[in-house]
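Repro:
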Amino acid sequence: MRIGISIGSTYTDPDHRYGPGVMVEQAQAAHRAGLDSLTVGDHHSTGPAAYAQNVPVIGRILADWTDRQSGCLFLVPLWHPVLMAEQIGTLAAMASGPFIVQAALGAGSAQFRAMGRETRDRVTRFEEGLRVVRALFAGETVSSDLFGVHEARVAPLPPEGVEWWMGADAAIAVHRAARLGDCWYGNADLTPDRARQKLAEYREACGRYGREPVRLPIRKDVFIAEDRVAAERHGDELMAAGYRGFVREAVAYGDPASVAEQLSVYSEIGFTDVIVRVMTASPADTVRSVELAGEVQRLLA
């Protein structure tokens, strides 16, 4: 079982250096802990809450993260595919291993309107955007009527290729992940029973399309501290306050041994990677939780 980290990008502190600074601290802690991969998210027009954007953040983090996989989410319908390909190609040229692209449709009509898009055509834009980016990465000269692209080429290209991770929950989306992606990325809100069901759906779809996933990752929200009682108290308070609308079985918190025990079920189900995201905590507790994820990794190895 590999353990990676998804670093949260949203913050509300009025000091706009705060959020990016905490993200860099988490990345440095993840590197010290020896975690296997690091990714960040993608969202747009989030004000008044701030959202540190994926490309510049990963570019900064790569200064401290050079020997393991990295990547980021792209809400494909909101990106011009040539720009997206150029950003990924440049990041991948600075990174190690196949660059991870977590490709998603995106949601929220306000976000789409702010970017001059409509949610109703997001599936069409997703599939065409993916086609254009992949063709560009193959070194082709590409055109697309949908995006107004005429004979585009890009460089640099990802030296070790790209892994396309696709989150999905609805059956049609799980089949899309099997048809178009290198792997399905399990959502953080999945309980073990639900994760088992969805993984079975995905494997069936892979068989239908003759695909073999490169890995089977799932994201999990966690909080880890040396003191199990204190960690459980903090986690219980978050859950009582309605943390992300999740149920208790979908998250993991406690000391490293208890968190490893809670996450071990996903290895038994068949997942190869757990991508942890730290539940809401102070900056110091967040960084320490990332460091302790390295102990969880060793217990699950």
